[in-house]
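Example 9 (inverse folding). The structure is encoded as follows.
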């Protein structure tokens, strides 16, 4: 398959998820990706490629100027793998979607990806959900996105981000004019209120906001996020915890 990619000029989408190709398979794909300038979407999720395989894929991605969507979810990728992908994005100006959810990139990996977003002018959809990212990673991402003009969608839910990180993301929304969709987990009432204030008083570009697992027992009819939905004319969808008290 990797050898075929080097010469094939017609295949646009390749999904080899759930095949346990491991590091060896990921390394084999690298040479094919470096030569192939036709494939636009590669889905390689749940294949146990870990950091070593991620580094190999990153090397292929750095040379490839055709792939627009890459999904490497559920692959035991850690900080080193995320750093390698970030390094590839520093030179690759073609990739628009990166799905790296359900891995273990942590704060270090998130910080590396945040760093490259400062210069990358192409990536517009990033999914780093369920990656053991804490406040440090959230702060790095918020700092970069306050200035980033390209990313349209960020999924950062189901991590280990606390109140400090959620507040930082809310602060970022006051100046960011590029994001259209945001998914995150807001554990505290203060974090939810900060998001609500940002949406109510500043941000007019977010169209889709999903907040998972809000404060237990929070009366959403009085929550700032709900009032933001009423006052922000650009926001068309707010999702909340299914157990919350929603007034409709």
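The amino acid assigned to each position is listed next.
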């Amino acid at each position: 398959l990797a050898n075929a990619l080097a010469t094939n000029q017609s295949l646009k989408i390749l999904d080899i998820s759930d095949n346990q190709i491991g590091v060896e398979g990921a390394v084999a794909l690298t040479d094919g990706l470096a030569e192939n300038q036709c494939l636009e979407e590669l889905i390689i999720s749940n294949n146990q490629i870990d950091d070593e395989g991620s580094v190999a894929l990153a090397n292929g991605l750095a040379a490839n100027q055709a792939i627009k969507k890459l999904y490497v979810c559920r692959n035991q990728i850690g900080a080193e793998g995320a750093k390698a992908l970030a390094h590839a994005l520093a030179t690759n100006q073609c990739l628009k979607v990166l799905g790296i959810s359900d891995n273990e990139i942590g704060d270090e990996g998130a910080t590396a990806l945040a760093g490259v977003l400062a210069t990358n002018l192409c990536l517009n959809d990033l999914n780093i959900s369920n990656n053991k990212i804490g406040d440090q990673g959230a702060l790095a991402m918020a700092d970069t996105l306050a200035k980033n003009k390209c990313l349209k969608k960020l999924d950062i839910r189901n991590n280990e981000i606390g109140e400090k990180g959620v507040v930082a993301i809310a602060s970022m929304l006051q100046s960011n004019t590029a994001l259209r969709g945001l998914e995150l987990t807001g554990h505290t009432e203060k974090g939810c209120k900060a998001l609500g204030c940002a949406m109510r008083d500043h941000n007019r570009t977010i169209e889709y906001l999903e907040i998972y697992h809000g404060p237990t027992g929070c009366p959403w009819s009085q929550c700032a996020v709900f009032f933001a939905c009423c006052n922000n004319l650009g926001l068309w969808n707010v999702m909340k915890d299914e157990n919350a008290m929603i007034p409709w």
